Description:
Blueprint: E1 4-7, H1 11-22, E2 27-30, E3 47-49, H2 65-76, H3 82-92, H4 96-101, E4 106-107, E5 120-123, H5 126-141, E6 144-146, E7 153-157, E8 160-166, E9 169-172, E10 175-178, H6 187-194, E11 208-209, H7 218-225, E12 230-231, E13 237-243, E14 264-267, H8 281-284, H9 288-293, E15 300-304, E16 320-322, H10 325-332, H11 336-349, E17 384-396, E18 399-400, E19 407-410, E20 413-420, H12 438-457, H13 460-466
Parallel strand pairs: 1-2, 1-10, 2-6, 10-20, 11-17
Antiparallel strand pairs: 3-5, 4-5, 7-8, 8-9, 12-18, 13-17, 14-15, 15-17, 16-17, 19-20
Helix pairs in contact: 1-5, 1-12, 2-3, 3-12, 10-11
Bound molecules: flavin-adenine dinucleotide.
Flavin-adenine dinucleotide is lined by residues 7-13, 30-33, 39-42, 44-48, 150-151, 179-181, 210-212, 214-215, 218-219, 252-253, 394-395, 422-423, 437-440, 443.
Amino acid sequence: MLDVLVIGGGNAALCAALMAREAGASVMLLEASPRDWRGGNSQHTRNLRCMHDAPQDVLVDAYPEEEFWQDLLKVTGGATDEALARLVIRASSTCRPWMVRHGVRFQPSLSGALHTARTNAFFMGGGKALVNAYYRSAERLGVAIRYQAPVERIELQDGRFVAAFVGDERIEARACVLASGGFESNREWLREAWGVNERGEHPADNFLIRGTRFNTGVLLKHLLDAGADRIGDPTQAHMVAIDARAPLYDGGICTRIDCVSLGVVVNRDAERFYDEGEDFWPKRYAIWGRLVAQQPGQQAWSIIDAKAVGRFMPPVFPGTQADTLPGLARALGLDETRFMQTLQAYNAACREGRFDHTVLDDCTTAALVPAKTHWARPIDTPPFYGYALRPGVTFTYLGLKTNERAAVHFDGRPSPNLFVAGEMMAGNVLGRGYTAGVGMSIGTAFGRIAGTEAARAAGKEEQRAAA
Ligand SMILES: Cc1cc2nc3c(=O)[nH]c(=O)nc-3n(C[C@H](O)[C@H](O)[C@H](O)COP(=O)(O)OP(=O)(O)OC[C@H]3O[C@@H](n4cnc5c(N)ncnc54)[C@H](O)[C@@H]3O)c2cc1C
């Protein structure tokens, strides 16, 4: 019988498959997508957040455990399990040599990727190259890989994994790792979770999905229905404000609009609704999807002037350009009078300071609601630009409750041979908010743990030690 069955084909699944195989287990990996689309959301990534106490190859300065933990605590507002979070943080300081052994290469932070040279190690060639390297390594080590193999359900006996079903095919294994992502591509489930707002709108109908169309949450639902313990809230997700012209799926990184902190953001009523300069962009970009989701029509517009150009990663589609602010309002289809009131009030409220986008500077507004607390400069230098924004869901946080061994739990009891990694359990560490790069830190840490534990549950490590 097969030792370890890994369900999913992204970073967490591949880390699990490689670790289980390295421990001597026979491993099969089932990926729902065709080969060309393999790698789930992981193929769209660029970096992982890493703890380090001193400079390391591509990482400058230090990013100690405590600072990483405080960053996580701040963004989650306490919706995190400290023991599991610290486990991820510590693992992030030691996993990279293993990744390099499996073909992943790193490069320094890209120019234009704000404030990340210290905290985030970038993958050379992005997530696509990482995923390809892991698949190559898995094939070389003898992991059996099957594409277009979506698992619809699994067979359990008293919390113990017995078999998985791909259509009518029943695949038995001694242990199993679930790493099939969140439910962000299941539009019906998103609609149900977000419900109807006070304006009678179904907000989720206007969401775009930044990543793979294959993360439909079929197994997550199945496990929850089968009594697995849950973690997180179905409406919580990593949601970015992305270009409203992005495709429904797989728009990826290039549809992100990164100029929010350099200007102002207005809604359909041409009103500002949140502090655009609250914190560094990598710590804030993931709240903006949710903020836009709460606006009428789930749409907003990021407005900048010529001073901002060159200070942010240019988006793939050009912005709407105008030589005057009233002209920009007209071009964007916003109420001109209201737009000018908003912009004039903002411009008048900007206090003189020393503008520095690399620190939390002292350019702030006075007596304005909502305030802009950093990088507030008048929008007064033509040409002016506007980017239409929509909520872009990256991944959902509802998942399966787990422990430091990555075990799936049923009524508080850990399964002896069913493990979980990646987005499917990220909510244990990340109940809310986001800080850039932590998704891959969680998936790598728990993928590796889940693979090791699954091999052990299949009796492999002991056999190896005895040999
Ligand atoms: C555009 C974008 C950019 C991102 N950038 C970053 C970044 O730079 N750094 C970072 O840390 N995080 C980033 N993330 C988040 C990151 O992608 C996730 O945290 C991480 O990839 C999760 O890995 P995973 O293996 O759990 O999920 P995925 O990589 O999504 O893998 C899930 C896999 O399961 C498969 N699957 C789904 N259902 C089934 C089924 N029923 N049967 C079999 N297979 C199934 C899917 O096809 C897919 O291969 C980004 C996400 C997106 C969308």
